[in-house]
Structures are given as C-alpha cells and as structure tokens.
Write a structure and sequence with these properties.
5-stranded mixed beta sheet, 10% helix, mainly beta, 4-stranded antiparallel beta sheet, 172 residues, 1 helix
Length: 172
C-alpha cells in the first residue's frame, strides 16, 4: 500500500515538470559547407551581441552566452549578413525572439525574414519589444536555409544553411 501511495505521489509531483517545454536544438543543417550566417549584431541597452559566422556548424550553434539586454516598449535593430562559407545558392532566412518565454519560437515571435542570394548587404530587422513580453532571459534564433521557403520552421532540419541561438534579457 505504501509503495502505491509513494508512486502516486511521485507522479503528482513530477507530472507538471513533464509539460515544461524546451527549446528545440535538433534544428539546422546536416552539412557545414555553403550557406551560413555571415554576422549578427544587436546593440542592447548595456550588453550587445556581436557574432561572425563561418566555418559552418552542423545542427544548432549555441551562442547563448552572447546576450543583449532590451526593454519592453523600446525598438532595436538586429543587423545580419546572410552569407556563405562557399557557394552562392538561393536562401530564405528568419529571426525569432521568444518574447513569451514558452521555449517555443511561435509564428508571432518572428521579427524578420529575408530571401535572396548570399553574400548580401547587411539586413536590418527592426523590432519593438512587445508590452506583454515576459521579463527574464530568453532565446533569439537566427536561421538561414539554403533553398528554404518562407516562413521557415524554427525547429526544421535541412541539408545546408545555419541555425544559431543567442540570448536576450528582457526587462520593463
């Protein structure tokens, strides 16, 4: 009897944990050649993201130690060069910020898209932090998919391109 009670109690305690989602990290390319994000820059209030791509990375590149701090209601520009580590093939690209902190990149959290042939000039995706954004540290995902079609799947796997995650700390 004690054993059944203990098992039931463990199930009750741990079942809410099972519903907590996690960022998909299996997204991204299988190959490290050809298309890749050339650079990412986001000037926050006091901390910034400054990244240069190449060589390419298979899967999702974790750059979450790079953090830009932003404030609800303020506008920012994330500046990107959608580039190449060799090859000049048609690409689609998209950027998301997990404003609501649910550890998913929802369609309404897309802050910019691009389609074209690398190497491109710097593309400025201007966004305003929404009033309902959750305070705390959340992820930014930058995806470039060779041969991709907009809108991109932020958790999609593909052959060539790149997926890189950064962080943002939201306040206000």
């Amino acid at each position: 009897m004690k054993r059944n009670y203990l098992c039931s109690l463990l199930l009750i305690i741990t079942s809410p944990l099972a519903t907590i989602s996690q960022y998909c990290t299996s997204a991204g390319p299988s190959y490290t050649t050809d298309s890749n994000i050339g650079s990412v820059s986001l000037m926050g209030e006091t901390t910034n993201i400054s990244y240069t791509g190449c060589p390419g990375v298979a899967g999702t590149e974790n750059q979450t130690t790079q953090v830009a701090d932003v404030v609800v209601g303020n506008s920012y520009s994330i500046d990107l060069v959608y580039g190449t580590c060799g090859g000049t093939y048609g690409n689609a690209a998209e950027v998301w910020i997990d404003f609501n902190g649910n550890q998913n990149f929802d369609a309404n959290e897309s802050i910019g898209t691009w389609a074209g042939n690398p190497t491109s000039p710097t593309i400025n995706h201007v966004f305003t932090v929404p009033s309902n954004a959750l305070n705390g540290t959340h992820r930014i995902r930058v995806m470039q998919q060779e041969g991709g079609v907009l809108p991109l799947d932020p958790c999609g796997a593909f052959l060539w391109g790149s997926v890189t995650d950064f962080s943002t700390t939201i306040s206000g």
